Amino acid sequence: MTEGPFGSRLKKAVGLLLRGDRRQAVRGPIPAITQEEVEEARRFFPRPKFFIFGHARSGTTLLARLVRLHRQVYCNWQSHFFTRAPFLTGLVESPEVAEWLGRRNNRWNRGRDLSPVALRAVADFILEREAAREGKSIVGDKSPSSRLHGAAVERLAAVYPDARLIYIVRDGRDTLVSQRLQSFVDAVDGLSRDDLRLRQAFVGSPDDFLGGARSIFVEADLRRGAERWARNVTETVAAGKERFGDRFVHLRFEDVLADPLRAIMGVWAFLGAAEPGREEEEAVRTEMARNPDAEWQQQQLGEAAWRIPKGGSGSWRAMMTARDLAVVDQAAGATLRAWGYPESRGQGTGNREQGTGNGEQGTGNSGR
Length: 368
Prior knowledge:
Low-confidence stretches: 348-368
CATH architecture: 3-Layer(aba) Sandwich
Structural class: alpha/beta
Strand content: 5-15%
Distance between the termini: 71 Å
Helix content: 40-55%
CATH topology: Rossmann fold
Number of domains: 1
Order of helices and strands: HHEHEHHEHEHHHHEHHHHHH
Largest sheet: 5 strands, parallel
Strand order of the largest sheet: 2-3-1-4-5
């Protein structure tokens, strides 16, 4: 007797109940977007895109605040499309979604996995929706890339090979100090017992730490942090040059502080924005006088917050002990020197006078 269509489906259903679903538990690699697909996407979403990467507390937020002052440029932050799990690719990573987007009888996919097209369309819509509301013609996102380093660049290139990438670098010692103090403010629940004791001691007697006599760091954590900073800088710059060529640029946070108008005008030119007018130049000067972090830190750390050099450069001289500096030099000294940062040997005594730039400038949030 010939088995009919109903009998065949029933047999498959019974087999599935008995043996379970034997389909692949993890989807295969998500293909990169093709040039043809990029050109199609840009017909629907024509605004040029850019992304700002940088190690956390390296000035990414300050740079985003400045770049969006241009009449043509909009930038918001922390989409983490390519810099933090589950990433933009999380939308298509399940085997079921992969099977659906790549199904052979799906006449919309042109015989190819639709995943990269779907990812590009989602990100484009999110970015351009905000830019359209602001009446801006160039749009970007800033998201710190501390967790993925060069891999974040690879993820970006798979979806936005036509984008522009800006990477901002800050003296690793200042970055580590800023991260540490930020953890005292915003990440108290994640602190270890040793961390909490140091935080309590710092809030109660900041002079012991500001003079460089006592460290705010747990040594093992400081070493890991310095190694991550060096890896982030080295890998991101190498991957940026390889993947984006002349659509990649890097700059130093300290240079932004020293001459913010010149620095941001260079970024605007890189993005293809029009020559700024007097209103934009004045807006940059006004923005540099703001310090959005100060009030929040005051609420969390009390009087100690006002004693911390914020938003400038060279604060490591006041906040790191000689031992701290030796640890950082072992882990990241070569990278610091490659970027032209001053030697730390013999420092760590609380002398703020020798810092690069003005540690008292109100430059605001230096890169959460």
